[in-house]
Amino acid sequence: MALARPRTGILVGPGVLANLPGVRALAEAVGVAVINTWGAKGTFRWDSPYHGGTAGLQERDFELAGLGEVDLLLTAGLDPDEVTTAPWEPRAEVVDLPVAELGVLAAKWPHEPFEPSRPRLYTELAAVVQPLYADPASPAARLNAMNQALAPGGVVLAPPGLLGFWVARTWSTTVPGSVVVPASVEPGLTERLAAEAAAGGRPVTLLSEVEVAVDGVDVVVWDGDLTIPSSLIDVAGPVVAWSR
Questions:
Q1: Is 109 in contact with 29 (CB distance < 8 Å)?
Q2: Strand pairing category for 72-76 and 93-96
Q3: What domain range is 170 assigned to?
Q4: I need a surface site. Which of 48, 77, 194, 201 has the fewest CB within 10 A?
């Protein structure tokens, strides 16, 4: 009698940006939409069937991603500070995969792929967030305008906190590594990362709630409201990023 196939999830963090072909091959081999933490935004385009959503920002993110229901959770490249809840414990077997070997492991996956489907993390958050882009005063709409104006090869950085939350939650990322919101609240870290990106020759935009000066970096001081609407909290719960 054939063994039942384990219900499988894939959760990835910023480390997988070093091997995007591998993680994409793994997603196709398993046949599931991949959940990325905010440090791995852009692993898949927002409109790819293998993009399951960005998790770790709000209390119910991983639950909405369906990771509390899987039997087997494949992880790769995670930053522990971005794994803010763990609804898969103690149910699932968790296997952390070496980032460099993802392509090889994909080729050895023993099951036929599932048909990828979007989890509630993607569909229910989209239902709340999409209307915000139509409100010119909302952070989502303002960030979307900045996104459209981002120079080719550019990177945008935002500090931990409400501003970083809005960037991580609503910036539509199509280029991996083009959005950076640190998981650590270490003072000055965001500015240091911006300076390093600029020194590497990238066009850099740093969003900040206070006046700062960083050589070679375009600093945009945020002057608008950053209140999170109750509709978003109702869906995914309070913000838990940067609380560890």
A1: yes
A2: parallel
A3: 131-236
A4: 201
Residues in the chain: 244
Does 244 reside within a domain?
A: no
pLDDT tens per residue, the chain (244 residues)?
345 789 999 999 999 999 999 999 999 999 999 999 999 999 998 889 999 999 999 999 999 999 999 999 999 999 999 999 999 999 999 999 999 999 999 999 999 999 999 999 999 999 999 999 999 999 999 999 999 998 889 999 999 999 999 999 999 888 898 999 999 999 999 999 999 999 999 999 999 999 999 999 999 999 999 999 999 999 999 999 998 7
Task: Tell me: do 68 and 106 sit in the same domain.
Answer: yes
Residue 37 in domain: yes
Angle (nearest 5°) at CA 136 between 58 and 224: 65
Closest CA to 179 of 199, 162, 154, 196: 154
Whether 31 and 86 share a structural domain: yes
Do 214 and 166 sit in the same domain of this protein? yes
**What DSSP string describes 195-242?**
HHHHHTT--EEEEESS----TT-EEEE--S--PPPHHHHHHH-SB-TT
Asked whether residue 58 falls in the same domain as residue 151, the answer is no
- How far is the C-alpha of 111 from the C-alpha of 97, rounded, in Å? 17
The overall pTM is greater than 0.70: yes
